[in-house]
Write a structure and sequence with these properties.
This protein is mainly alpha-helical and 79 residues long. Helix content is 72%, strand content 0%. It starts with 14 loop residues before the first helix and ends with a helix.
Length: 79
C-alpha cells in the first residue's frame, strides 16, 4: 500500500520562511479551531454520560478512549 504513494515534487520552505509568513490572524484561527475541537466532543460526551447515568469510572474510560486513544492514533499516523 505504501509503495503506491507518490513522492512529493516540491520541498518544504525553510522554517525561517514559514515563521515570517505567520500572522496574528493565522494564530487566532488556529487557536479557535483547537478550542472547538477540544471542547465540542467533551460537551457531547458529558451530556450523553449524564443522560445515561454513567458512573465516574465509566465517564473516565470514555474520556480516555476519546482523547487518549485519539492522541496515540494521531501520533502514530505522523510517524
Amino acid at each position: 500500500m505504501l509503495s503506491a504513494l507518490e513522492i512529493p515534487q516540491q520541498t518544504h520552505p525553510p522554517p525561517r520562511e514559514m515563521f515570517h509568513t505567520i500572522s496574528r490572524q493565522h494564530i487566532t484561527n488556529g487557536l479557535t479551531a483547537f478550542l472547538f475541537a477540544v471542547t465540542g466532543p467533551l460537551a457531547v460526551l458529558l451530556t450523553v454520560a449524564a443522560r445515561g447515568r454513567l458512573s465516574e469510572a465509566d465517564i473516565s474510560s470514555w474520556l480516555f478512549a476519546a482523547y487518549g486513544l485519539g492522541g496515540v492514533l494521531s501520533l502514530s499516523t505522523t510517524l
